[in-house]
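Per reviewer request, we include the raw input and output of the structure prediction for the construct analysed in the revised manuscript.
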Amino acid sequence: MKSIDTIKNNFEKRGFSFSYHKEVKEAIEFILQLIPEKSTVGFGGSVTVTESGLLSAMQQKDYQLIHRALISDLPVDVIFKKIYESDWFISSANALTENGEIINIDGRGNRVSAILDGPKNVVIFCGQNKIVENIEKGIERTRNIASPKNCVRLKKKTPCAITGKCMNCNSTETICRATVILHHPTSGTNVYVVVAGADLGY
């Protein structure tokens, strides 16, 4: 893997903000300092956000959090609309390339659409295990590591949930419906890539 300094430089040349933190708790503290309290904060589905402790840490602060796990009295479509209208959006990514690109493969598309054209401030929080050499390796990682594990987690009836690897299926339950590669932040959006020196999520 290229040095973190080189990777940081590659992301910043593309217009992203990039920070690396050796400890997960340091990365979380950085995000808490970055996002002003009283902000509305929407979330994309992310194992990283929950297992790292970020969501729990934000619940202890004065934020208005819009996360499907925290809201039970609203229809999903209403929750997604509120997320798009938030001040900030927090998600992870399926892969980050050493060249400074962000790769996501989605089923419904609410996560990638919020990153592309939702809140004006976006935080992409990842463990260093998400960093890959290039776009090809990123898509390979997503299809053969992230997607099979997510299909198991979501109880999807797909071939990869059984085999543990992508079978290029046409299953009605596939979560690989849209591949989005962010080469630069979309116009008018501030994207903060925050990487922790640990393995987080899928």
